[in-house]
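re: the backbone from monday

yeah here it is again, tokenized this time
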């Protein structure tokens, strides 16, 4: 899995083809959970920065985006648990 945070925000989520579909899906979900957690942390860091720069009206929006991102992770985590229970 490659993942670059540059202007093009390239994602390569092609998992080894000799893995079972369940394993691939599990690996993708784990990757997405980590990826979203990283993004959520970044949103919160920037929320603090906007507040420090007198953009108080932007702060709650970035906090909300961070919360929503972590909500998505809750859904991904449920899916991951179902896959792991199946194995």
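seq for it, each position gets an aa:
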């Amino acid at each position: 899995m490659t993942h670059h945070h540059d202007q093009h925000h390239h994602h390569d989520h092609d998992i080894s083809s000799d893995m079972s579909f369940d394993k691939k899906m599990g690996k993708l979900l784990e990757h997405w959970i980590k990826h979203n957690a990283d993004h959520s942390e970044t949103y919160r860091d920037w929320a603090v920065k906007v507040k420090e720069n007198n953009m108080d009206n932007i702060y709650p929006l970035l906090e909300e985006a961070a919360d929503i991102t972590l909500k998505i992770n809750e859904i991904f985590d449920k899916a991951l648990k179902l896959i792991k229970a199946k194995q």
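The mean pLDDT is 89. Strands lie at 2-3, 11-12.
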